[in-house]
Amino acid sequence: MRSMAILALALSAIFAGITTASADTIRLCTGSSTGVYFAAGKKIKEMAGNAVSIELVNTEGTIDNMRRTLDLAKSDAESCDAFIGQPDGPAYRGATNRGSLSSLRPVATLHREYLHGLCNKESGVEDIGDLESDPAKYSVAIGPPGSGAWLVWQNLIREDEDYKEIPTTSEDGILALTAVSTGQTTCLIVPAGLGNGTVGEADQTFGDTVALVGANDKDFDDAADMSGKPLYEYAKIPGSAYPKSFDYWNDVKTISWPATVYLSTEKVSREAQTAFATAAARAAPAIKASFGK
Question: With 161 labelled, which of 27, 44, 152, 184 sits at a CA distance of 20 to 30 A?
Fold first, then answer.
């Protein structure tokens, strides 16, 4: 009888542990419901299965993701426990508030993203790095504050203050694209994986007036991520990704980085951290296959 009682207690403890782990829902901040980050989040959720509960949260992007994960209490309805984002987000935040990153842990790298430059053909700009040569002459659309393009631009300014003198607009998407096409704005920057909708629209509709260019200022690769490693590397955008107008003989070289999955170690139990990190790592190959290695 005593042995049976001990066994019952042991089984009770095991089942209690399983119940606790399954109840530890991780809220994963992604981005727009139509964006790549949300699609990547769905793959991570699918891979997690019953190991850990994952709730996907639509957001405004990396800056909003960090705010929800690092600044809001877990009890807050807008709070997240993990997020998918650009690695230059933590780098930007860490430059002014390093301590706020103490609980942030990268757990997986996903698809490759590129800084696409879309410039008016008549401007003569062949690289985003050309803009600093005559700030009074040129302008660039970087999207609204907190957007992915805005974030990249802040990091480029940190590496070369000359870019601070270039006039910017907060337009993005089709409005920014039409402004570039008609010469109201010189260039538009789009940080994204291959097959991005805005770049695809430029390729399909604006090929006569808009060119796809890279970003190759030698200062750009001096930037460091939250671990002190190089934030950007140079890679080539394959012309075949945009085959109608941008399928050049030579692919376009530009700065690049992997989208990254981050987790707050303060908000998630160790067991759930393990299950989530495993799911993210296992989902990564399928995400790269869909959106670019």
Answer: 184
Strand partners, 214: 127
User: What is the pTM assigned to this prediction?
Assistant: 0.85
Q: What is the pLDDT of residues 207-234, one digit of tens each?
A: 999 999 999 988 887 778 888 888 899 9
Select from 63, 71, 82 the least CA-distant residue to 24: 82
Q: What is the pLDDT of residues 147-184, one digit of tens each?
A: 999 999 998 998 899 999 999 999 999 999 999 999 99
Taking CB atoms within 8 Å and a gap of at least 24, the contacts of 237-242 are 237/114, 237/116, 237/194, 237/212, 238/194, 241/194, 241/195, 241/292, 242/199, 242/200, 242/202, 242/203, 242/212
Residue at 75: amino acid letter = S
CA distances from 65 to 172, 225, 268, 270, 272 (A): 20, 17, 16, 21, 20
Distance (Å, rounded) from C-alpha 150 to C-alpha 193? 16
